[in-house]
Amino acid sequence: MKPNCRILFSCQKSSFFGFQSVKCHHSLVNHCNSSKFCLNFEHNCQFQATPFRILGFRRVSDDSHIAFRVPMWSFGQSRIISRSYSDGRCRDVSIIASVASKKRVSENNFERIYVQGGVNVKPLVVERIDKDEDIVGAEDKIEAGDEKVSQVDLNEAKAVRLRREQSDNEKEAWKLLRDAVVSYCGSPVGTMAANDPNDKQPLNYDQVFIRDFVPSALAFLLKGEGEIVRNFLLHTLQLQLGKTVDCYSPGQGLMPASFKVRTVPLDGNKIEEVLDPDFGESAIGRVAPVDSGLWWIILLRAYGKITGDYALQERVDVQTGLKMILNLCLTDGFDMFPSLLVTDGSCMIDRRMGIHGHPLEIQALFYSALRCSREMLAVNDGSKNLVRAINNRLSALSFHIREYYWVDMKKINEIYRYKTEEYSTDAINKFNIYPEQIPSWLMDWIPEEGGYLIGNLQPAHMDFRFFTLGNLWSIISSLGTPKQNEAILNLIEAKWDDLVGHMPLKICYPALEYEEWRITTGSDPKNTPWSYHNGGSWPTLLWQFTLACVKMGRSDVARKAVALAEKRLPADHWPEYYDTKTGKFIGKQSRLYQTWTIAGFLASKMLVENPEMASLLFWEEDYELLEICVCALSKSGRKKCSRGAAKSQILV
Ligand code: GLC
Questions:
Q1: What is the 306 CA–ligand 1 centroid distance (Å)?
Q2: Which pLDDT tens digit goes with each residue over 70-89?
Q3: Between the chain's N and C termini, which has fewer beta carbons within 10 Å?
Q4: What is the number of the ligand 1 atom nearest to the C-alpha of 596?
Q5: What is the full DSSP assignment across 29-92?
Q6: Does any ligand 1 atom lie closer than 6 A to the CB of residue 209?
Q7: What is the distance in A from the centroid of ligand 1 to the CA of 515?
């Protein structure tokens, strides 16, 4: 039988007496009976490609009720979305778990699954969030780090926020952010990366990037607008289907870097809307979007925390999607370390910049996503091994980063005096770092107070560059120890002119120059010294800086940075990035009206004014995790095992 494959996620609009009607369906069809056959089918689809993405699936069941996206492994939850056929037409059918408990999904909930038609049908669980009293039960508390913030407090915080008059800059930013909203089948699903009407060559900047949408999502959530975020989370979940690139299928669970809503003309005055994801197969350099799935998890938790709509994360399809990402990240490989091994350009820096291996940014996002997942995963027989794996990984990862990535003056002096070629489990210089590797700029630059986590660690290699995003997320997620987190902020303050200058904040410091630039970037003309990813200044980093400052009780520092940004961003038309050592000029190839610049500014303003809301987005030290690691070390005879011991170790 010839496979019949159709375009993923389509939606038809037709005009009838001036009224527009929208009919949506996931038109992803194949008819195959064995997984072997379907594997071939994936490749066939790729080769028969229409201008749009076509995907194959591994298994499909009967004609009248076709299951798709059946995971290759079993979680005890197989079908998550299905389609039904009536009158020969394919119709969307979402399976939504109706969860009695607002906290967790149990296997028994399968008996209580509702089947609803149409992707735009508002599930029952959503309707409940419109009413305040239903957000969280009166006695329910939301955890904010160590503290408990009651829903009543949050409502008060909202009222405070609404009372303040918005500045003209904020009003303009809100208008621009709303103009950047992308709709699919009549509903908002994301924001495009940049929306400059004068840009004749938008490349892929007219797409919704997963990582770029996060500050937009936070701005909307903090303003009390959850719908766009909910739609984004659910629609991107549908895109997490696996993909074939040159006959190779990357792991299932990979989230795309971005997606675009395309319009396809159909017969009979109709058009079809299609969600067309890019997993890196079109991206410049074919980079893998490793951070997308991690951001998706972080956003899913933020959505629950801020709206109180925990039912979304409890849905069976959402739980399955979450597990698919986690399984992809936690799969065993040849690794010796708990950190994630990735290729160059797999995160915000999505071009060759010498960050392959174990870059800090990915480790910090990985750690944050694991902490989120630990809170959100339904614990049952099908997930208990995964939960155990998450806990073990969290404690091993924090130990690894805290011990081996940390540098301050004392540590650099230690490295400076390292002996090399030590062969033993007791080696001090475990990675065989030659002291000559310490760059001369670092000897002069490192302040007496403060320190930071280095960019990357490999055998015989430490990348001493300061990468801002990774350091900020180490503070936010408590990947670093409380003292280290404090010291990172101290360093940013001490090195304000270098890391903030005229525009917060440098993506990394310092820039690669001369021969190093040529070899490391491959002579990339976009990443010339002090431009773009190579030491450029990115205003979108402001919201994460604000969050880190609020967490550390340093809102004053965040305010200083926000004020600096506000002085220039509106006048400069909200650029993507700035160039030069101090961030003086708008970037050479910088887009204007860059959405995550605009949204990052708005989110920063709201976070700094509402620390109690901000506290929903960060984590405090978790002693249970430390204990796991200290106990594991004690078994190998290296440390004493107890929570007290955990607290007194280097780990704290
Ligand atoms: C650039 C950035 C990347 C961002 C994209 C869209 O490629 O490096 O981080 O997601 O633009 O704004």
A1: 26
A2: 223 222 222 222 323 233 23
A3: N
A4: 12
A5: ----SSHHHHHHHHHHHHHT--SS-B---S----SSEEEE---SS--S----EEEEEETTEEEE
A6: yes
A7: 26
